[in-house]
Design goal:
CATH architecture: Sandwich
Number of helices: 1
CATH class: Mainly Beta
CATH topology: Immunoglobulin-like
Radius of gyration: 18 Å
CATH superfamily: Carboxypeptidase-like, regulatory domain
Helix content: 10-25%
Largest sheet: 4 strands, antiparallel
Distance between the termini: 63 Å
Low-confidence stretches: none
Mean pLDDT: 88
Length: 102
């Protein structure tokens, strides 16, 4: 009986994780500097309303990957030194989001 309970809990957890991974999809945030060149080491922050949902730094190609839900509106900010950029989006079928800093 104990093994069945453990198995059911395991299946429930697996189903919950599978459901969540289906809700979010991988997006690439590309950041360009004021000269329209890929910007490295830029802090990118994802906001869901007033809540910060994720953040990270762009790589040498000016890109950073994150997981977003297509049913949620997000504000994405990019900041490095005296440059910044922002975009408000609802993710769709385009999996690359470009932010131009100025």
């Amino acid at each position: 009986m104990k093994r069945i309970a453990i198995l059911l809990v395991g299946i429930s957890i697996f189903a919950l994780l599978a459901q969540q991974s289906l809700a979010a999809e991988k997006y690439t945030i590309k950041v360009n500097d004021k000269n329209n060149q890929p910007a490295t080491d830029v802090l990118v922050t994802i906001w869901d309303g007033q809540d910060k949902s994720d953040s990270g730094y762009t790589n040498s190609n000016g890109s950073w990957d994150t997981w977003l839900e297509s049913s949620t509106n997000y504000r994405i900010t990019a900041v490095k030194n005296d440059q910044s950029g922002e975009k408000v989006i609802t993710p769709g079928s385009t999996y690359t989001i470009t932010i131009n800093m100025n």
